[in-house]
Protein 1
Amino acid sequence: MASGGSKKKGGKPGIFEKWNIDDQPVKIDKWDCSAVKNALDDAAKKVLTEGFGYVEDFSMTDIRLAICTISCCFALTALIFDYLYPFPLSRPILITCVLSYFTLMTVLTIFTTFFEKNYIMFAVQKDEAGVGPDNYWRLHSTLKRYDQNYSLTIIYKDGDSKKEREQTITKSVASWFDEEGTLLMDIMEKDVQELHNGIASEKKDK
């Protein structure tokens, strides 16, 4: 079985070999579906950020956190005001805060469903010359419960044409973990790079 710490041809260490040296080998309980998915998701994200030098975009996360924070502020305001001015004096404020809270929860549901979706990462590919528009990359993954097949999709959005292209790879999780539950980092890196390069080659052909 291949080892995550093995060197590539030519003696140049890959992204994950450096990760393996700097930190600890990624080892999880291979029967824990969530742990398996999280390990593979983190590995895929690391290829885009450290391997290709893309910048992770946290704007979607920031928006979600902002909505949650404002919602909590309304809930806290209702709690404090009702403590200082017991019901029924607090009725107008309670009604306002409750309606505002549930409105924001509705907005949050719409945002996570139609905008953030189930993407595990948003990344920006900066224009090398610094004059053209940036390109955008997204990662989406699925691993159903009690299913051994992990699917990873890379979506590319061209900054000029705004057109999107995507490619997906689906493999058994056993392809990326050894019997001890250690992530085979060199194999994961190779698969993600091939997926990325497939989209890049399409971009050059068009």
Protein 2
Amino acid sequence: MKIKGLIFDLDGIITDTAQLHFLAWKQSLLAENIDFSETENAQLKGLSRKETLRAILELKNLTWDEQKIDTVCFKKNEIYLKLLENLNKDHLLPGILDLLTSAKSKKLKIALASSSLNAPLILEKLGIIAFFDYIADPKKIKKPKPAPDIFLLASEGLSLNPENCIGFEDSLSGFLSIKSAKMRSVVVSLDQFSEFNQADFWFSSTDQLKIDHILTVLNS
């Protein structure tokens, strides 16, 4: 099947705000007398805000009601938005601007499939929102990654069949989401999950992403 669309995760593929997320979680949890380490944070890659907090509570053997969860999520996001104020085009990961530019020159459609509710703001600050034909709204899906919902929503938003799309991810849950959506897959990660061997491409850095090579292989 000919590739007609590219669907990207955001954090770890287009930019890297993981440290900002960690600092925001650490500060908001500290206010609740909960210590949160970078090691614990690394286990939660690819989860939505609320799913992240639920996972943290599970790690800490804590139970909160929904109102408390919503309150802490809101406070975390306020801190995160403050940290995002200095984000700009210099925070694009290597090779991404060239990749997007080349994809557009080839008339490929481009979408974002991120669990971040702040994705449109981040794309705006990075100066690349005009490249995107569709941004999937995580509030419209029933199940988060590793379920295929958000990638399927993105392909639907592009008016393309999933098999005509390539999904780009850096997390295991994200890759499993692409796989479940029956899309072609590109993983960019230093993690050594055995599942990544099933990806069509597995790179260690975004500067290795060359759309001509990827299309030549997948369209052959």
Protein 3
Amino acid sequence: MNYIISLPKTPAGLYDTEALQRHFMHGGIIEEEDVSRLIEESESYFGLEENVIHVYDNVLIFGDYHGQYFDLITQMNDPFWEGRYSTSIYLGDYVDRGTMSCEVLITLLSMKVNNPSHVIMLRGNHESRNMTRSMGFMAECKMKYSLTLYYQFCSLFDSLPLVCVVHRDIGDFFCCHGGISPDMTTINQINSIDRFHEPPLEGLFCDLLWGDPISEKRFEEQPGFKKHYDTITFLPNNERNCSYYFGYKAINEFLQTNNITAVIRGHQCNSEGVEMHFFGSDELEFPLCFTVFSASLYSLNNKSGSLLLSNEKIDIGKYNQPDCLSQYNPILPNPILFSVIKVMESIEDIMYQLISFVFNEEDDEHEEISKVQVSQVQIQQENFKNEACSYFSSTEKELITPLNSYLSQKNRNDEDIIVIEIPEVKTSISRKGKINNVLITFKENIQKKNSLFLSFDQSEVHPLIYNNLHASIATQEPSLYETNETIKRIRQESLPVSIEEIRKKYLGLNK
């Protein structure tokens, strides 16, 4: 099997997404020229779309993936959704932090070119130069392809639409990555945004990518918030250092003004994959906002989720970590270098905090600067901080040594997956113009096994080496000591193989 191939196509001339998935499942990459052409093709479609897209079909909505490719294909290929929707909506944040951002983008862009009007990709806050320089995507592009392709992806990000409004019998739903804005009264205002550039640090464009709902936890911990929940509009978002938290009064007024049933957004990890927001109200029976997050194990043991909107009801799917591959280790690093990477990550954090501290002191000395000047200074500071941190991100990526073999999915038995049907919950919408009864159902996959194995034939490797590698990958804790001990034992058995050959051919280790 070739490690680098051209983008596969079907006899009809469409991109063969199934063949593409199989190739990525074995650790392969695509010819850079083909990826470049794919970006150009898809960008031509995005450029024709308005800032706000309107959809009148049943839709399946996915949240943040952050480079976790195996979550993407697990959810896309779930037979539970088969034949139940005609359009898929992706809420942004396809890249950064995970190790397979390129694979996520190439797969989604292939689907977009195959079916432009039925694959909607919205922009997230990570689809920007400032974020991708320091959060991993630039380093990944440099390692797998080139910086030229990275800059081409950044140009593509500038063309992504911002909002999708889904029209169904149960109501209209406002889909974006972040949230609503104090600078927006009607949805039509969004079409006046010039989106074809790097997102700003304030204003409507920024809020659509960066805004957050006030969390239910905050209402529980602060009685004052709970008591006056219906008076809260917007609060400064100190966690993000930009945009706002939006409260009950703000979102309720937005929904009423625009005759919208609920906001559906991504941007925030939650434990169950899909979170419903009631903004402190004990009277609401239907949430004003849904948060969909599709990257499992992103924070501790969170599940991933997706959401189906149809004319009759809302279906919510929840998933544990996919059992096809570990999204955290698609390549097996040298254990010693892996430790160095962790050290570099710590240095990166220290550098960022140090630079932030210096700039914060400078801000205190220039309190008289105008608003416009402050905005320009903030952008310059953020660019400088990201440039400084990107050095460490790119350095740590260059230290990774790929294993000279492929990883693939172990064949599963039917009993490997248990499907739990959670009882259906009926709820109602009290706002005018909406159907009173909406059915929300939950479907959850619980996967019992998570096995990995090396895809080269076992007969090619001495059994002691094979078993040692198999155990190391399955536990995600490769042991250099155990590997060296195995090599010594093979030498003692006088097999016709050298330590150097084993290291280079099977382990990808240097002397």
